[in-house]
Specification:
The protein is mainly alpha-helical. The protein is built from ten helices and no strands. The chain has one domain.
Length: about 200
């Protein structure tokens, strides 16, 4: 019982710390010896890493950032009863802790965090594969239509809460998706301004 209690207490902390690992910074330095925060858009996410350090570094950053969300949420499912409200709330709390870690990283003094899309994707990949699949489909459609990663991310974030509600019927998980989407939009405020003005960079 004591061990289980410790696990319940420590997992959200672990999720936040894992979310705080700035893989974009680490991988860009490995591939180019440059600081991604001083290059391109200055963002540590996969899109900017791809522009600065190349496709391989970008793909690795995407995968690592998704795992930051997927791993702790998977662990939360393994120790919490996902069929109870308390279990759902705990899983949602762990997911949001990982997401916040990416946005406000402990290891960079809560500054220069990413926009949270990949880490959120990793979280909801585990929470609801069907909802994740719907969001990814919307992301791809908007990428093809607009040729802008930010447009795909914003569209996917917008549809995520509805997709989670339709596929899980969980008010708690839907609330987590709504909160996640709100933060993603806040972090994309500069991108939204550039999209509206026609100044947002294209992918290719």
């Amino acid at each position: 019982m004591m061990m289980m209690t410790i696990q319940f207490i420590l997992l959200p902390v672990f999720a936040y710390m894992l979310g705080s690992v700035p893989w974009g910074v680490i991988l860009t330095r490995m591939f180019t010896a440059q600081d991604i925060r001083a290059k391109g858009s200055g963002n540590i996410g996969a899109t900017n890493v791809t522009r600065v350090a190349g496709p391989l570094a970008g793909v690795l950053t995407l995968a690592a950032d998704m795992l930051k969300g997927a791993v702790p949420v998977y662990l939360a499912f393994s120790i919490a009863d996902s069929n109870s409200a308390q279990g759902e709330f705990y899983i949602a709390a762990v997911a949001f802790s990982a997401f916040l870690g990416h946005l406000y990283p402990l290891f960079t003094k809560f500054k220069n965090g990413g926009k949270g899309v990949a880490t959120a994707a990793g979280c909801f990949l585990v929470i609801s594969l069907p909802a994740f699949s719907i969001a990814i489909l919307v992301f791809i459609i908007f990428i093809c239509l607009c040729n802008r990663a930010s447009a795909g991310s914003l569209a996917a974030a917008a549809v995520l809460p509805l997709a989670v509600w339709k596929t899980t019927g969980s008010e708690i998980m839907t609330g987590c998706a709504v909160l996640t989407a709100v933060f993603i939009y806040i972090r994309h405020k500069d991108n939204i301004r550039r999209i509206l003005s026609g100044a947002e960079p294209v992918i290719w």
